[in-house]
Amino acid sequence: MKSITPVVAALMPNLGIGYKGKLPWRLSKEIINFKNITCKAADNKRNAVIMGRKTWESIPKKFKPLPDRLNIVLTRTITEEHTNTDDLIYLNDFNKISSVIDDSIDKVFLIGGSELYNHLFKSNVIDSIILTELHTENSVEIDTFLDWDLTDWVQKSHEDLLAFAGIDLEPEYNEKGYTYKYSLYQRQ
Ligand SMILES: NC(=O)c1ccc[n+]([C@@H]2O[C@H](COP(=O)([O-])OP(=O)(O)OC[C@H]3O[C@@H](n4cnc5c(N)ncnc54)[C@H](OP(=O)(O)O)[C@@H]3O)[C@@H](O)[C@H]2O)c1
Predict the structure, then answer these.
(1) pLDDT in tens, 82-138
(2) What is the CB < 6 Å shell around ligand 1?
(3) What is the CATH architecture of 4-187?
């Protein structure tokens, strides 16, 4: 199985990621960076993005499947409504992912939500994490959190992050009262 890299934006220090099934914030530069990170693939290849059914449903219809990436949606109940295409595959079992990742796929990202992030964090398919660490004085309502303990992980340098992501990212962003930066974590 290829390694899978979670990409997630979380409010520090409590690692809050969602509210009522949606993102608690709308940060346009963060959306652009997310797209650039998850789309950047080797020549003649594309990346795959894996998500849970609830995260899939939180994406507005006009934006999905997320373009230029193979979208893999996990749901335990596959029905006739779930039609697979070249860009979208529904799977009812995480262990079937390797069967749909062929040589045309470069990187594999996990893009949510909390159930998958929290479950897979403990598995050895994850050895790197791209975390957007947000800080704000705004009052933000959050009901969904990562239960990650990153103490055994190493926060790599910004240069390591840029090399890993293969795109340009600024050391810090400021948008709508939020300050945020991207961090690459890897297992010790
Ligand atoms: N801040 C961020 O970067 C970020 C990113 C993504 C999402 N989010 C937020 O996270 C929240 C959604 O997270 P969530 O935990 O509620 O839902 P989720 O993880 O997106 O989806 C959960 C669903 O995925 C399916 N699933 C999970 N594990 C599975 C497995 N091993 N095999 C087969 N199917 C599996 C099940 O679907 P069925 O019920 O259909 O069986 C389950 O109900 C939202 O608020 C969203 O905005 C935040």
Answers:
(1) 899 999 999 999 999 999 999 999 999 999 999 999 999 989 899 999 999 999 999
(2) 8-9, 17-18, 21-23, 51-55, 58, 74-77, 92-94, 111-116, 144
(3) 3-Layer(aba) Sandwich (3.40)
